[in-house]
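Convert to structure. Protein one:
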Amino acid sequence: MGDRLDGHEVRDPHDLHTRVEVQLDQAAEEVARRLAGTRSYGVVREAVTDAYRQLAARAKVHAFLPILAARLALQRLQEVR
């Protein structure tokens, strides 16, 4: 649990980054599973990370970005087959 400031919880930004990385790992695992071994995990993880960065640069709300990044990465990787 984070510290409190004026009655509001203040989260450690490192903790938030760690959570996003875990979500991106999970997203990449799901995309890799859906691609049934046609791409290595490293290629899939890189595609998910790139998609996440692209979406995050324009997003106002970041809550669902790992899911959206997974969908975008899957679409891109399927197009390259």
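Protein two, convert as well:
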Amino acid sequence: MTVRVQDVVAAFIARGTTVATAESLTAGLVAATLADVPGASAMLRGGIVSYASEVKAQLLDVSPDLLREVGSVDGEVARQMAQGTRKACGADYGVSTTGVAGPDPLDGKQVGTVFVAVAGPARTEVRECHFSGSREDIRRAARDAALEALFAALTPETPLGVN
């Protein structure tokens, strides 16, 4: 599925719901892409760029023990990041990205391994993705996966799946 960012913003506005971002490898790309759409201020509450594990723990309430045990590239870390930004920014939904853009593997995960999570009022969904290409390609693909996951969260008939 390829979703246009305008459709994501419109879907959130139509439902009167808000979103916040927690980004590691995308370093703000998701929030910036949403903010590029006129009217996004009606749905975008804010975001936290959490490149460092300490920031994930301190600002997003990611378990320090979990970070020590598995590192930052992990589905449960993504889940906690999404839940943490939802709470920190007072949003209806939180979306997170964490992964390895390269050039080297990280935390035992290969370049291109990305986890995207969306936390909402009823549940949190985590998606594991595997992308290839340059560092820039992987970061853009992670951004797109986050936008798709947000849209899917509002349209339950669209499964999140695994890439």
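The first strand starts at residue 19 and ends at 23. The two ends are 11 Å apart (CA to CA).
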